[in-house]
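Internal tracking record. Fields below are filled automatically when a chain is submitted to the structure queue. Please do not edit lines marked as system-generated. If the sequence contains nonstandard residues, flag them in the REMARKS field before resubmitting.
Queue: standard
Priority: normal
Entity type: single polypeptide chain
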Amino acid sequence: MATMLNKRVTGAFGKQAPTRARVAAVRPSRSAVRVSASAATEQSVDFKTMRDGIKVAAEESLLTPRFYTTDFDEMERLFSLELNKNLDMEEFDAMLAEFKLDYNQRHFVRNESFKAAAEKITGPTRKIFIEFLERSCTAEFSGFLLYKELGRRLKATNPCVAEIFTLMSRDEARHAGFLNKAMSDFNLALDLGFLTKNRKYTFFKPKFIFYATYLSEKIGYWRYISIYRHLQRNPDNQLYPLFEYFENWCQDENRHGDFFSAVLKSQPDMISDWAAKLWSRFFCLSVYITMYLNDHQRDAFYSSLGLNTTQFNQHVIIETNKSTERIFPAVPDVENPEFFRRMDLLIQYNSKIVEIGRMNVPDAVKALLRLPLLERMVAEVFQIFIMTPKDCGSYDLAENKAALVY
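SYSTEM-GENERATED OUTPUT FOLLOWS
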């Protein structure tokens, strides 16, 4: 590994900061984070390509970004002005007006610094940057495809909501295109048209789409803004100019999340009864655990930015959970010390499973070696799920609003 990946950095999410502590960032020495051809021997970035400059997409797994589809007929019923009297069209009209302003229309403008910065990122760091860009691009493009189709299908049923979905697809396409162009700085790119036709689509019922997309947008906001703020405090870790765009970029994610909050309020049965509480907690844990495992498998990427992966993830989960409390009827109590103790056990078991995957033994042997670890992971996830949750929910749905204390 390049020297840069082994550096010690202090900061709000820095290597030496204690878990969940918030401390002032200390600017590291420039020599600790500079990446250049002279800092490390260039290593070949071994990625399969479909053709010159077009990367074969990473293999799909439980932890990779997915493409989604849903029951569009049910979506039409849920957004029907005739069938659903809970639709607050004044709120949706106000949101549509804001989406039309398109605050970031001129934000995603590249300059010559992108290519120059990419050429200085070498060796293992170059590989993990490409992987980060691919995963991010795939996730954004997934949102584009789903929102675009919803905008098309709902046009006759609810023109206002349909146009919001179309404008959100505009945002996601802009993000995906910007990320794919960034990949081209590293002499690779994704064939997004090929992915559209050939990637598997996961079916989710509409209410699960609402839970999952709300969480993905809100956690995206907290990830982007946290990275941006960290790099503003530690400019020597700003290895690539993409991160300078995150402040405005994350506001797109936040607006999308607010829209899905309004959608959930228009479907009170999805955020009010005992089943809604179970599903809310389930999706929170699904998103939090997936991010925690994914990011710890890619610790080298966060280290390259001077971030402490564990502390960064815990901060993002805690802040996302606080946002989610405002709409979901129940959420995990992520500030209970037991929560992250068990999450860290999942990291240990998952790391051992990854190590087994690298062993030069038959697949049948690998499966047997993985089995007890998988059983322990399932047991830990169950223990996290049955922890006492936090009861919460939207003030807008409270029966006695006069009794609320803000």
